[in-house]
Fold this protein.
Amino acid sequence: MKAGVVGAGLMGAEIALVFALGGHEVLLHDRSDDALAAAMERLRGILDKGIARQFYAPEAAEAALARVQPVSALAAMAECALVTEAVYESIDAKGAVLRALDRVCQPACILASNTSTLPISTLAAPLRPERRARFLGTHYFSPVSRMTLVEVIPGFATDHAVVDEMIGVLGGIGKQPVRIKDVAGFAVNRMLHALLIEAVKLVEEGVATPADLDVACRLGLGHPIGPFAMMDIVTSDLCLQVQDILHDAYGERFRPPALLKQRVAAGLGGGKGRAGWIETNRDG
């Protein structure tokens, strides 16, 4: 099967990689040649570090990068049997890409959106009615090359056979899919952000430091990473964006804490080259 991924950012590039590791030819699209070049370099670094070899056969890891073809023309997606949209978490941005894919992809092509919060039936609105049966959500987790879970979310119009086919495809590339109802935030992010919000409130109230709360979650709850270290990796900016969406959908229980908003506004959101919760805490 030839698969396509639209969006060569952190998530999109690694989604392309895991399909390639699973033996599929992959087209990775971005409008920017620089973004495509950076994505391929990042994937080469992942393979060079041997991360993929922990989860895939050595021969699969060696051959994977050759199966990923960067393309800057969206029309190339006409060759694909499955295309995953992995652009910015915005209804407008995703809707524009999905509308364009609806025009260029084959009628039998499955379209999937890698969204972490946006309802699939809402994202399906720009698609032609006949395409909606072959559209669904596939929420991967970062880093995609190491995290095996994928939430599979059918929309109102998604054909059940398409859901079953997608679950089979994901199992074939080493992922563990779980079927989730189409609601804002799905399942994992609702649980996660309830934890993150409470963790930030504990810091606001002076109950414990971010570093100590990370230790408490690792040793007391068995989490592989603490909430503040996680926010530093995925960025507090993204966490705030997700919590705003959840707050709109569910009300007061997901209101972003004031301290999180202040830190994002102050440029302390974490991520590459920026201070975050743990670094700032260590600096006093």
